[in-house]
Amino acid sequence: MLLPTTKDELIKLKWDQLDVILITGDAYMDSPFIGVSIIGRVLSQAGFRVGVIAQPDWHMPSDICRLGEPALFWGITGGCMDSMVANYTALKKKRHSDDLTAGGKNNRRPDRALVVYANLIRQYFKETKPLILGGVEASMRRIAHYDYWSDSVRRSILFDARADYLIYGMAEKATLEVARKLRNGQSIQDIKGICYISSSPPPDYTELPAFEDAVADKKSFAQMFNTFYQNNDPLTAKGLFQRHGNRYLIQNPPQPLLSTQELDDIYALDFSRTVHPYYAKQGKVGAMETIQFSVNTHRGCYGECNFCSIGLHEGRTLVCRSEKSIFDEVKKIAALPDFKGYIMDIGGATANMYGIECPRKLKSGACKNKRCLYPGICSNLKIDHSRQINLLKNLRKIKGVKKVFVASGIRYDLLLGDKQHRAEYMRELIAHHISGQLKVAPEHVAPEILKRMGKPASRLLLDFKNMFDELNQSLRKNQFLTYYFMAAHPGCTRDDMRLIKAFAGKELHINPRQVQIFTPLPSTYSALMYFTESDPFTRKKIFVEKNLRGKQHQKDLLTDRHTIRKQARKVSW
Fold first, then answer.
1. CA-CA to 340 of 20 to 30 Å: which in 18, 205, 448, 480?
2. pTM
């Protein structure tokens, strides 16, 4: 049963009031890939009455008021993406389409959705139940942060939204604890994984540089971010506080990671994998074509690319589902009436991380001054793709399944680090699990830029390509690699883009097409570099392309077929 989104549904259910109303910036898709649906299902499974208002019209009360007022709290999310990323390109142009909106037209999501939705509720419900923010927009904007679209340091979004609490990260445990405590009339300020505003800080929490100091001094901003970033592991993080004027943002330590069983239980919930009829009648939701018949195998990512928000939001420690849980979900999908036999993707943020994690990290937490994969693979990370190989082989045997594709991309450095199983894993992928092409994301080739991105050396890409080509030939397959590159990352110059062009032509034999312009996402190291124009690890000044024409020119240097393929300088790949 779908969660109700209309008054008529409440009447049919004979519910006079909901316990929780969830507001989202996406269309309501009942899918395990959609955060608001997971939270709604988890709360519903625990006995709470939950409703969803998706993409409410913020110009009038008809949408926000249609389910009444909740008995416990309002849960507000901007959706699966930060609303500013969803609404604008890296060149700050308005996006005309939106795959998360019914009908595909980008006209249903406001800029700074959390702020708009929270203030919309306050406008029509005076002295209402607590407003609680969640999702990636809340997570990445929970402390003072650089905002690319206003080119300024903004306060914690809790202040701008005038919300009561914020739940950061993957929020199932915290949200359930919040709901139970509110139902019992208890305080929720001691719950792990939440932020709130206070007139005074807790005595044992670590202080971040104040918002005003972060605005005035880039060194203070960098110090603030470093301390914040190092306090996100559930096993080692301390509570934090940051002064904003005469009040304090309080961040409690993170929630413990879900266990495999807890993650399995979430994915066993009865998701319909459909768009709610109320929204489906407004048109197709493009995202459903990708996620309807796809399966998540794990959460988190220890790749720690400096431009990416996944590690900070989902966590740097992998939590994997059991094989049985994955098999059960695929069997459910195979039984759906419109399933044609194709699992469109099996994986996660990086597909081939499944089943691979550092035992030391699981016991003691993530290292503070060391990364799992950069500059090389840590010796404590024992890489073994055998579990993934068995998973893929067994998925192919499920009745009704014709193909299981690995479409979410893989880390080639991780693959090459598994000397025992890498050839077998690649053979399995090429023979059975690639739909003509396999995505990889080198992002760049210049050593200094790769260093600032936290990406592996280009020689590993060439080693991987050689293995891929040889196996394709031996298996008589006509498959190819799709390479994703990035322009205008902090430190990147036009000469660096010419270097990619020369490398792509000489070594990869392609004219790059999959090229994105860097976007400084809130609370990422790359955004810190963009704002401060310095390398936070060496503290050296770096060139940052901030002119929009200059950014476009960097991209054009790579995608233009007529650009001369020449090296800007000699480089050892």
1. 480
2. 0.95
